[in-house]
Amino acid sequence: MKALLSASEYYAYFPIFKLDAAGRLLEANPATDLLFGGSPQAIYGADGLIASRIREESAEEVFVGRLEREVQSEKFGKSGLRFTIVKLPSASVEDLFEITVYGEITELADMQLFNDELRREHQQNLLWEAYALSYDSVLPRLDYYLEVVNRHICALSQDGVQRVLDIGAGTGSVTAALLSAGCRVTAIDVSRAMLERLRAKLAPKEAEKAEILQGDAKDLGMFKDCSFDGVNILLALFDMGDPIAALNEAMRVLRRGGVMVITEPRRRFDIIQLLASAEASLREKGLFEKLETHWKRVGQINKKIDPAKRGKRLFVEDIAEILSANCFYVKGVQDSHYGNCATIWAEKKP
């Protein structure tokens, strides 16, 4: 299913989310996640603030309703919200109806903090929107990237690996290959732009075996322990706000005997050296001039997300120690990205 919120709705400075006719969440914008602590359940859930109004109108195929509510936000204090609830035929699925909820903020104890944090969230999302424009134009032309992708695919193509979680799936280089190999894949990423490109790559039969989720991997509470046979993490932890939480969740949802393959930066990571080596490779192949605009964008964005500059860092050396201390066999470590990164193969102990 394609993204349900328009770009203007997604980047609005007030909560907007979509529900199906039964009241289940389809998509929420960052303002919703920020104000309601990552989930609007407190608003739309069975005992939520707008649930009664939705139930009142459940027999109507189309309706527009309004109501006002007060909510206590743990981070931003008391908030007043004026909801507009619109039920209309779905624009993406024939013969289905969806509910769009617009939450006008009439009062917020710490509006300045909310706006500041939402602005930072938008800036991070827009960074990935820009990266998505050039990601698939440049990376598949780089031999070191193709080699790493192939490592991950091979590691997760073993007998007994049927259901795979792809954390930080991006545009789906690994997801698409695993789906083609017959696996069922759950792909999760924070970037809607990346996931839109992933969806566009999938043939209808492949899409049937894929579950594509936009969200933060630090909370995989929708999955039970030991839900997956394999977990894929390819350069995703380095840009997360809480990479340790995401790794802990990845370990939790992998079954005993399951396979985890991770490529992340080493402590000696040098973004300048990596970009220089990659550019030299493109020039050697005669591709640089053709890809120069895309390459400049990739270079600028990678400098902004340099893992050496992150507050919470988790390098390959740290990951290997954490896995070994948490009932995993680390079966191999191999350098990549001109020695700046490395791939870890690990198996969860029976």
UniProtKB/TrEMBL annotation:
CDD domains: AdoMet_MTases, PAS. PROSITE patterns: PAS. One of its GO terms (molecular function) is S-adenosylmethionine-dependent methyltransferase activity. It comes from the Bacteria. It holds the Pfam family Methyltransf_11. Residues 15-74 form the PAS domain. InterPro entries: Methyltransf_11, PAS, SAM-dependent_MTases_sf. Signal peptide: none annotated. Gene3D superfamilies: Vaccinia Virus protein VP39. PANTHER family: METHYLTRANSFERASE. This is PAS domain-containing protein. It comes from Methylocystis bryophila.
